[in-house]
Amino acid sequence: MKPASTDLVNLLATRQFFSTDLYLFTLIGGGQLTYCGGDQDITWNNITWSAGGGTGPYFDRKDNKAKCHWKVGVEVDTLVLDVLPGSALIEGEPFLSAVRQGVFDGAEFTFYRAFMATYGDTAVGTVIRFVDRVAEIDAGRSLATFSVNSHLELLNQNMPRNLYQFGCVNTLYDESCTLNQADFAVNDMVGSGSTASVVQATLSQATGTFDLGVLAYNSGGNNGISRTVKTYIAGTPGSLTLLAPFPVAPATGDTFIVYPGCDKQQSTCQNKFSNLANFRGFPYVPENSTAV
To answer: How confident is the model at residue 62 (pLDDT cuts 50, 70, 90)?
Structure first.
């Protein structure tokens, strides 16, 4: 039984109403994306829910799409839906490209159904159909298939929680690592000859300092977008090769922040970050051997 207001129950009893689906994605970091499955934008809860306006994205609910599965007990409830990107942008980046870059990874998802006496009049409220988190996304050339699971999925954890392995089990700058990311931030600007995949800069740090780190622009056409650094080679200028290109090539003089990365090795933790006390790898575990 889904809870509903008295006004909503009365509207449903008339059997004369409009309805549309509302989709809320709460991204890691707190950002929100709000979409509407109707033909026009609507406003509810002081939020404008975008119907695409000819640009997308569009949520496909025909035939067997967007089926919700609720199960009794502790089995994980699931929802699968297809999203046609159209020409929709997220932070200035094409929808499918943003999906592939992990924008929706781990996002909280809430699926509402809005009922209206006249289209756009959301005074009677909505019904929550599904509350869950994004589990997997299969992004093809023309659409993305979202698989979202209820929060019971979080109980599916390996035991013991931490495995004995050569590399550190911490994530750089997390609570267990204890390092403050802001303390390692390096500000610089783009030099001439830079491309969407390779950034030339006047960095003075040693080769390898920013390998597996993160570069984030704070001005220019890529403002607010970040990418993982594949390799850094010191020089005049220094060269940062990215794991994936930015949406547009930066202009000379665009500013950015870059953070060092970690390969989770004991020597890196000790020599690069002076954080050996919080290293949680097991480099002295004996290697696998074969009995002959």
So the answer is: low
pTM of the model: 0.61
Q: Tell me which of 155, 171, 190 is where a domain ends.
A: 155
Distances (CA, A) of 79 to 45, 65, 108, 252: 24, 9, 13, 45
Burial of 288 (0-12, 13-18, 19+ CB in 10 A): exposed
The Cα 104–Cα 88 span in angstroms is: 15
74 within 8 A of 150, measured Cβ to Cβ = no
Whole domain around residue 266: which residue ranges?
A: 181-278
Identity (one letter) of the amino acid at 42?
I
Q: How many domains does the chain have?
A: 2
CA 270 to the chain's CA centroid = 31
pLDDT in the model for residue 286: 79
111 and 209 co-located in one domain: no
Taking only the tens place, the pLDDT of each residue in 110-122 is 999 999 999 989 9
Bridge partners, residue 214, by sequence: 228, 259
